[in-house]
Amino acid sequence: MIRPMSDAIVIKGVRKAFGQKVAVDDMDLVVPQGALYGFIGPNGAGKTTTIRIVMSIIFPDRGEVSVLGKRSAVESKDRIGYLPEERGLYRKMRVGPFLAFMARLKGIDGPAATRQVKEWLHRVGLADCFRKRCEELSKGMQQKVQFIAAVLHKPDLLILDEPFSGLDPVNRRLLRELIDEQHRAGRTIIFSTHAMYEAEQLCDHLVMINRGKKVLDIAMRDLWKRFDPRTVIVEPLEHHDGASVAALSGIPGVAGAHETRTGFDLKLADDADPAAVMSSAAARVRARRVELKRVSVEEVFIDLVQQSGGSGEEIAEIRSAIEQARAEAGAGVSSGEAG
Amino acid sequence: MKALHVAWREFCSTVLTKGFILGVFLPPLIGVIGLMALPMLMNQKPPKTEGRVGVVDRSGVVMPLLEREFTPERLQERRRRTVEEAKAKAQEAVPTGMGGPSMEGAFRQMETIAGEGPKLSLQRLPADADVEAIKKDIPKATSRAELPKDPLLALAVIPAESVSRADGASYEKFTLFTTPTLDVEVKGDVENAIERAIVDARLVREGLDASKVRALLSTPRSDSITITQGGERKTHVAVQMLLPGAFLFLIWISVFVAGQSLLTTTIEEKSNRVMEVLLSAVSPMQLMLGKIIGQMAVAGVILGVYAGIGVVALVVFALTHLVNPWNIIWIAGYFLIAFFLIACMMAAIGSAVSELREAQALMGPIMVVLIIPMVLWMPILRNPNSLFATVLSFVPPVSPFVMVLRLGGSERVDFWQIPASLAVGVLSVVVACWATAKIFRIGVLMYGKPPNFATLLRWIRMA
After folding, report:
1. Taking the complete model, does pTM exceed 0.80, yes or no?
2. Which of A34, A204, A310, B92 has its CA 20 to 30 Å from the CA of residue A160?
3. Residue A322: domain span
């Protein structure tokens, strides 16, 4: 039975098909209040359909959904902020009146709506855009306006579908900060992204979806533990040679060392203490960076798809989608962070 | 409440556009300005015509008769008769405003337009005069200011055979040479006078009394009186046909402008991808309802503007008795039914397609159906109680338009048909709203290949 009051979102046994194509299959999910959940998966995985079901924009063929203690999001729309994947603005409408209109639809009175709109525009650096027509804004500016429309009414639950798509790195960072701020304010947030490393940087719980099915539902801290590659990364300060490999291989607890583009990966033995290995490595090689390697979310995803019997073609498609997502973001820095 | 916010935005975004303001307010404004400016322009008296009309009368009998036609009294009388005829025609077209201030004004305009009448003198020329030589005296000036004093404005050449003819032959025609600047009214008057003189000369030649024959041939204009339950009144054919048409046109145009606008804004919301943003705040039903209410207000504005003008016109021309107040109430009901039916169709189509171009394919059959009342306006008005008109009164979506025409017609519609057709209309609105809500809910989030009617029916069944 569903627990409607204690969790922000509860999905049980939900299935949705469009003709022959099953978009969401037998989905179970519980999002506790105050959590920051990331929905990840390649394009077409079923993320948007799941979110639309949560928002009661479409209805499941079967299964139960509870949102903020209600049987349907329709009953608590004023407590939900939603940034859809297919988002747009009234092109001819001015930014201020558009946001005030959205605020009124969310139950904020006229004068209060205008005041809050001005405050938010100021916060995101669009203070001078109040009287501008939406069509005069750049894409990044439009996305900020759309984000404001989603959070203006201080919702209890914030659902963001692909919030980072189309943003440049500077605005991605700004959006991450804003999402983090909303989370710190106690709001439950779920966001979906096909750029999986974004989720890794931001959320405290991951839900991986592939071909309409949930393949992983895990807290980030548990993910690091469960998918620990037990590898130490060493990035030397100066040019290195074969002698360095030999020196690092000899560290007690290192099962093997091999050279990478930027330095070395040291594979730990099963009983090795990572801290002791890292300190020995730093003593033997003048290093810019010595750290315990974290598995990337993308690697975990591919691994899980492989384990579930995914074909080579499917894996290649996922890899290609991951590369494309990184390229779209121009995320050289982010890539390193995800590393 | 949310639906009302949507409605207000929909209303403002439609009404506060330059296109709407120009399209709705400009035509009546131009009409009013035209009505005000026209009298001012018409107030200008016609140009003064003063000069001679040369006559070469080769019959020798027309000239004395023609001289009688050109005495100042006869010229004045002809002018008066022209004005009287114009007044009679005006009263027939726009009736019983007798004594109404605007009618009096119009009559004054007519007097002014007719002017003081020309000051013409006849110049008898010898029967064997050299016409080519005299023609040279007619000024060829293209401006009246350039005319000499007492100019020869026209030269009439009347052949002897215009009065007498050989057995079996036809009468000859006369020829009139004129200066380029001669006022057309004056020219017509001169021609008529010559024609009359020639005919009188022929009658005299045949030994008949010309004035007696004319009296025998003329009859005053007939009076057409309609006998109604409320008494007798003058028959005003033009108004009887135009008034129901005006009601039909008024409703049709307001409903269609608003309906078209609903279609456009819905497609815009889809193509701008703002639909899902809206659906995060309102349900599809609230969105659809809000949009329809907003556009109903738009239709109300159009109706208000044009109906207001119509009411002012009826009051000014003292024609309010032609409109039955009960009919206004029924017509308001039919307007609402027509609006909701069309709005539902437009909302359904708008939600189902992604571009205006795609909507055309679905709009075609609907337009064909809705053009029916416009095409059948005359047959329905001539026989409002025909089986065809009666049946159409119960077939939505044309029924409200047909009933509006029938109610305005000369024949009384059986009373039971009014509530019955209203009930059918309301029922059809309920069904249309239900079906549209289903299509709307699915359609607004559908992109890609535009659906056909079969797909829309499937959506209605599955949703």
Report:
1. no
2. A310
3. 304-338
Number of neighbours of residue B439 by Cβ within 10 angstroms: 28
Instruction: Indicate whether A23 and A158 sit together in one domain.
Output: yes
Structure-model confidence comparison of residues A312 and B90, the more confident one: A312
Alpha carbon of residue A101 to chain centroid: 29
Number of structural domains in chain A: 3
pLDDT digits (tens, 9 = 90+) for B393-440: 898 888 999 898 888 776 778 888 899 999 999 999 999 998 988 888
Nearest residue of chain A to residue B4 (CA atoms): A105
- In this structure, are strands B119-125 and B152-158 parallel, antiparallel, or unpaired? unpaired
Of B449, B431, B433, whose CA–CA distance to B441 is shortest?
B433
> Could you tell me if B272 lies within 8 Å of chain A, comparing CB atoms?
yes
Of B5, B272, B280, the CB nearest to A91: B272
Residues A164, A80, single domain; the answer is: yes
Per-residue model confidence as pLDDT tens digits over A302-327: 877 777 777 777 777 777 777 777 77
DSSP calls for A66-89: EETTBSSGGGGGGGEEEE-SS---
What proportion of chain B, given as a percentage, has pLDDT over 90? 16
**A236 and A141 share a domain?**
no
Alpha-carbon gap, residue A44 to A58, rounded angstroms: 16
Mutation choice for B interface testing from A49, A57, A78 by most B CBs within 10 A: A57
**Domain match, A162 and A249 both:** no
Pick the range with the lowest mean pLDDT from A68-77, B291-300, B443-452: B443-452
Amino acid (one-letter) located at A274: P
